[in-house]
Amino acid sequence: MKRILLLLPLALAIIGLASGVRGQGKDDKPGFIVDKAKKQIIIDAKIAPRRLEHLKGEIYPIEVIAAWAHPKGKKAHETVVTIEAMPSAIHKALEELGAKPGTPVLGGKDEPKGAEVKVYIEAATPEGETKKLTMDKVLVDNRTGKAFPKTVQWRFTGSKQVQPDPNSKDLVYGADTTGTLMVIFPVADTTVLQTNMTMEFEKFMKLDTNTKILPKEGTPVKLILEVAK
What range defines the domain where residue 56 resides? Predict the structure, then answer.
């Protein structure tokens, strides 16, 4: 009996590695699961509010897919979903799945570089089914009604390192200071993923969430990142 008890933690650890490893979010809250077999990171998320009181109810175009909620999240007013996971932990998990980070971009005409990552939002339908939604289903142009282009790729750029304390030379993972996981246009280089679009595309798209497809604000969903083969 004693031998069985001693071996139990090891057995549980092996089961955990086989089925997926749960990461931790900020404040030690559960954040995500890594499915090594499918090369996926499944992140706990919620549909973000489109109006924030401190901005007097003004609605800003969507430029971010996932970020921390207000007040910690610097992009909470323009995101599709809010998350709890630490961006640097997601970065590490992507590397463990074989993806190599590239180079983040801030503004300009340069295209962000990095390994391609597929992105989905998994949500329950009113009929009780679960669907994986691609970004062309999630986002629409609020002026034309056109869907977000299917041809857009997501790149694992990794985040710029920043110096939060001017009195210290210590650098930290920039996305952990903003809570920004994914940006559509290079409006920030303190993020983990960017698309292959340059800043020049921003003026042609005024994006909003597709409320005909997504569940209501505050609904728990899953954000799935899949390392492209």
Answer: 19-227
